[in-house]
Amino acid sequence: MMYRRTLIISLLFIVLHIVFAYFIPQFISFGTFPYLDDLIKSGFPPYIYSFANFDGAQYLKIAQSGYLPLTQAFFPLYPILIRAFSLWGLFSSLLSGLIISYLSFFGMLLIPLVNEITILRT
Q1: pLDDT tens by residue, 36-83
Q2: Number of domains present in the structure of the chain
Q3: Which residues contact 101 (CB under 8 A, 6 or more apart)?
Q4: Which domain holds residue 24?
Q5: Residue 8 contacts residue 29 (beta carbons within 8 Å)
Q6: How many CA within 13 A on the CB side of residue 106?
Q7: By C-alpha distance, which of 76, 59, 85 is closest to 51?
Q8: Cβ(85)–Cβ(91) under 8 Å?
Q9: Which of 89, 102, 94, 76 is nearest to 38 (CA)?
């Protein structure tokens, strides 16, 4: 029951996030940042690749090309996972990163629920 409610609220959050990303550029201009050209070349619409702006673009670049100068401050697990997902050929790097991010989001939401259920059973 608690899992279902959390899942529904989370999915609603993600859908609203995407809807807002679709409409916000009509009111606020899209800024520039390093590797923006790579995101534009990805072929995805702006409301999708906008989720990979700023540090997301850095992580995608690390996943594709390895560490470059001034990227050593980024932790390696996320780019490694992106590269692994994209090497399977199922998803592009951008979609792999989004899937990993949302799965991590769901996983972190479930930890308090698992703890609460464990406490209730004791």
Answers
A1: 888 888 889 988 888 888 888 889 989 988 888 877 778 899 999 999
A2: 1
A3: 51
A4: 2-121
A5: no
A6: 14
A7: 59
A8: yes
A9: 94
Q: Tell me 90's DSSP state.
A: S
In this predicted structure, what is the pLDDT of residue 72?
A: 75
8 Å CB contact between 22 and 47: yes
Provide the pLDDT for residue 96: 93
Residue 64, both tokens: 């594709």
CB 85 within 8 A of CB 99: yes
Dihedral class, residue 66 (left if φ above 0, else alpha if ψ from -120 to 50, else beta) = left
Spatial contact of 93 and 63, defined as CB atoms under 8 Å apart: yes
In 3D, which of 2, 15, 40 has the Cα closest to residue 102? 15
Distance CA 121, CA 110 (A): 17
The pair of structure tokens assigned to 76 is 């390696």
Say what the pTM is: 0.80
